[in-house]
Write a structure and sequence with these properties.
With 494 residues, the protein is mainly alpha-helical. 44% of the residues lie in helices and 8% in strands. It contains 19 helices and 11 strands. The protein has helices at residues 2-13, 41-56, 77-88, 111-123, 134-146, 162-170, 200-203, 218-228, 244-254, 284-289, 294-304, 317-323, 341-354, 356-374, 386-396, 422-428, 432-444, 452-464, 471-483; strands at residues 28-31, 60-63, 127-130, 176-179, 188-190, 194-196, 208-210, 233-237, 260-264, 267-268, 334-335. It has a 3-stranded antiparallel β-sheet. Strands 1-2 form a two-stranded parallel ribbon. It has a two-stranded antiparallel sheet with strand order 5-6. Strand 1 (28-31), helix 2 (41-56) and strand 2 (60-63) form a beta-alpha-beta unit. The longest helix has 19 residues, at 356-374. The chain is elongated and about 110 Å long. The structure holds adenosine-5'-triphosphate. Its EC number is 6.1.1.17, 6.1.1.24.
Length: 494
């Protein structure tokens, strides 16, 4: 805790990493997903690091939806992304749902800003209209591929005379706006990757910034929005690192001060591929449905990567905020280890059970789940009482890793009368009826079951009176009668 306070003070008074003695304004950071799919673990980690960075320094965490790729929009994804951030405990301070001073927070509602900016760039000669048809662009691409070169636009329309441009516009020839890349690369200091330099004009043709349908591409839209939303730090996936040179050129052409950049290592699948919406990867909703707790996911994604002094298990959100240290983020991508999920959830579930307030919520949730799963089969309504549910939670904490597990067939005996036939019991022991009668008598006599030791002594006494059944055989009969399980209940995960 003390470390956290010191880090906050240190950040405010100095330029922290650079050691500059100036007071830093509270940062404004943004998470900017495209609503072309649901939030996955990789996106969640990038969102979380933005959140931690902002909260550690008393700043604002903005959610901006980048919905300019109209062909890939997925209905419902925008809402679902924000729902998942809220569920995960990292809600934005500003978003289209929450409002804020710098909205709209959805790019499709900001189109005039982009067209005005493109017009300004055309005006100052930093951009130009391009009338090249898709056919020509395809041809360029194929030619490059045939000759073993990386395909790139040849900047042909840069050379059009103003009259030619006017004429084509007047004729209604479809046009895009391209940004003139300057040659020569200016290095910049990335907060994670350090000094970086990318000679973009040497490897790429001039990029499109405004499409023929009036929608901006990512490059223009993100620069315009970062400027107008007063974003001070851009923390985004490292796949954008090489585009940053382009973005910095745009900032310069517009006369704007760029934000500081931190490119975050990506979370990868086991096969080394990037977790991505396009592959329908590991969506947060799915984990939630399976009973994974939000703090488990936060723990899992931070554990996979860097950004902390150590890799201990079981950090709560407040601890993540305190302990996050951007200078500890490494440049290499991290493999996601889903095998840890069970262990992490077990730890966090136990913590919730031990927290009075959170446990009350768990009890309600478990009750709902019990009703949903066993509903009409429940003959003893006492199993729905808070005290009973609390007892179940206490007994199974540290063993089960999700509430869902308490509803599987192995745990059905906790809620409904087990279905076992006399024959099944007799197959285990010919003295099954005697055992049952003796145990029923023990219960009816009001024997104290407060301690397991006491209960064991009583049960051993009953076993000693049996002729053909040992204590272990008697226990098998009881287990079968009470739980319909032949073997000990094994906790099996989600
Ligand atoms: N696997 C990942 N690990 C870490 N950050 C990621 C990962 N995938 C995406 N991000 C980051 O999350 C933010 C939002 O990403 P976005 O919504 O574009 O998701 P995406 O999975 O990259 O999408 P798509 O694959 O559909 O292009 C971006 O900053 C992006 O860099």
């Amino acid at each position: 805790m003390l470390g956290c306070v010191l880090r906050k003070m240190c950040w405010k008074r100095t330029g922290a990493r650079r050691g500059v003695c100036t007071r830093q304004p509270a940062p404004r950071v943004r998470f900017a997903p495209s609503p072309t799919g649901f939030l996955h673990l990789g996106g969640l980690r990038t969102a979380l690091y933005n959140y931690l960075f902002a909260k550690q320094r008393g700043g604002a965490f903005i959610l901006r939806l980048e919905d300019t790729d109209r062909a890939r929009l997925l209905p419902g994804a925008a809402d679902a992304i924000e729902d998942m951030l809220e569920w995960a405990g990292v809600p934005p301070d500003e978003s289209s749902r929450r409002g804020g001073d710098y909205g709209p927070y959805v790019q499709s509602e900001r189109l005039p800003l982009y067209s005005q900016t493109a017009a300004a760039l055309l005006q100052t000669g930093h951009a130009y209209y391009c009338f090249c048809s898709n056919q020509r662009l395809d041809l360029l691409k194929r030619e490059a591929q045939r000759s073993g070169h990386v395909p790139r636009y040849d900047n042909r329309c840069r050379r059009l005379q103003p009259e030619q441009v006017q004429q084509r516009l007047a004729q209604g020839v479809p046009a895009v706006v391209r940004f003139k890349l300057a040659s020569g690369a200016e290095p910049f200091q990335d907060m994670v990757f350090g000094w970086t330099r990318h000679e973009v004009a040497a490897v790429e043709g001039d990029p499109i910034i405004l499409k023929a349908d009036g929608f901006p591409t990512y490059h223009l839209a993100s620069v315009v929005d970062d400027h107008h939303m007063r974003v001070s730090h851009v923390l985004r996936g490292s796949e954008w690192l090489i585009s940053t040179a382009k973005h910095l050129q745009l900032f310069r052409a517009l006369g704007w001060t760029p934000p500081a950049y931190a490119h975050l290592p990506l979370l990868l699948n086991r096969d080394g591929s990037k977790l991505s919406k396009r592959q329908g990867d590991i969506f947060i909703q799915r984990f939630r449905e399976q009973g994974v707790l939000p703090e488990t996911l936060l723990d899992l994604v931070t554990h996979a990567g860097s950004g902390f002094d150590n890799n201990r298990i079981g950090r709560r959100l407040e601890e993540l905020v305190c302990e996050f240290n951007i200078s500890k983020i490494t440049t290499h991508s991290a493999l996601l280890d889903l095998d840890k999920l069970h262990e992490f959830n077990r730890v966090h579930l136990q913590r919730r059970i031990e927290d009075e307030e959170k446990c009350a919520v768990l009890r309600d949730e478990l009750r709902q789940r019990v009703l949903h799963t066993h509903g009409s089969q429940i003959s003893d309504r006492a199993v729905l009482e808070p005290l009973y549910i609390q007892r179940v939670l206490e007994l199974r904490k540290g063993h089960v890793c999700s509430l869902r597990e308490l509803l599987n067939h192995m745990h059905a005996y906790l809620w409904i009368r087990p279905r076992v036939t006399r024959q099944q019991l007799q197959e285990v022991s010919a003295e099954a009826e005697n055992i049952a009668a003796a145990v029923i008598q023990l219960v009816a006599s009001g024997g104290s079951f407060e301690s397991t030791e006491h209960l064991n002594t009583e049960l051993k006494l009953i076993a000693s009176r049996l002729k053909h059944t040992k204590y272990s055989g008697m226990m098998r009969v009881l287990r079968l009668a009470l739980s319909a399980q032949q073997e000990l209940v094994n906790d099996e995960g989600f």
